[in-house]
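The methods section describes the discrete structure representation at length, but only in general terms. Since the whole study asks how a given chain folds, the encoding of that fold should be made plain. An entry of this sort, consisting of the sequence and the corresponding backbone structure tokens, reads as follows:

. . .
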Amino acid sequence: MKTTMITAIAFLIMAVGHAQDKNKSVSFEVKGNCGMCKSRIEKASIKLKGVKFATWSPETKQFEAVIDERKITIPDIKKRIAEVGHDSDGFTAPDSVYNKLPECCKYRDPASVHMDHGNKN
């Protein structure tokens, strides 16, 4: 009986521990300029297994997501975002991809910040 009780408590503790990893909020900076960047960044990340929600703000450059840490890591997300043309801490988009971005999305060019980004959201 005592062994059964200890086993049940151990399983309960493990279940609670795993539930905490299921929905973790993460936030980091991603380079970009406009609504087209927003769409590209969000689409690339939300398609990853383990990303439950993703949003990026052109104003603050902050990417926010809810992830299941058992299925995805922050470096995995940053790598995927870099693959579609956007830099983040530790991950740089390949020049071949970055150079194909629309002119207003070329955040490495200081002049692009002053472009008319219109209603591309």
Q: What stands out?
A: The helical segments are 2-22, 35-46, 74-83, 95-98.
